[in-house]
Amino acid sequence: MFRNVLGKLVTESVRVHCYVKPVPLIRRVTPSSVSVRSFTDVKDEAQLPFDASLLQFLVCPLSKKPLRYEAKTNELINEELGIAYPISDGIPNMIPQEARLIQKDADTSTTPTQE
């Protein structure tokens, strides 16, 4: 029985091999077809500007409140929680662990009073 199965396996694989046309799996890449940037090509590029129209859609992932764009620091600010999300290359980094704590103004009207 084992010889029968082994015989069928060999003959089937030979038949498949005969019908399959060998094709190279990886296309050869020539240096002219690939754009390569090296570290010496990188210059001090200005950061891409943030598209302010995204503020209509972006909210703080923690409080779900709207954010304010601060152009001077290039950050999205959540006034309620006092955190700032950085923007790098025009893309906001909305990961809460990457956010920076900012100092809130000492406004007594928003802080609850203890009685």
Largest sheet properties: 5 strands, antiparallel
What's the number of extended β-strand segments?
A: 5
Radius of gyration: 30 Å
Q: Kindly state the percentage of residues in helix.
A: 10-25%
Shape: elongated
Task: Quickly name the level 1 CATH class of the domain at 63-101.
Answer: Mainly Beta
Number of helices: 1
Q: Strand portion, in percent?
A: 5-15%
End-to-end distance, in Å? Answer: 91 Å
Structural class by secondary-structure content = alpha+beta
Q: List the secondary-structure elements in sequence, H or E.
A: HEEEEE
Q: What is the average of the pLDDT values?
A: 74
Overview features:
mitochondrion; N-terminal domain of TfIIb; 1 helix; alpha+beta
Textual characterization of the structure:
There is one protein chain. The chain contains one helix and five strands; from the N terminus they run αβββββ. By secondary structure, it is α+β, with helices and mostly antiparallel strands. The protein has a domain of about 40 residues: N-terminal domain of TfIIb (Single Sheet), CATH 2.20.25. Strands 1, 2, 3, 4 and 5 form a five-stranded antiparallel sheet that branches. The termini are far apart.
SSE map:
Blueprint: H1 2-19, E1 68-70, E2 75-78, E3 83-88, E4 91-92, E5 100-101
Antiparallel strand pairs: 1-2, 2-3, 3-4, 3-5
Quick summary of this structure?
The protein is an alpha+beta fold.
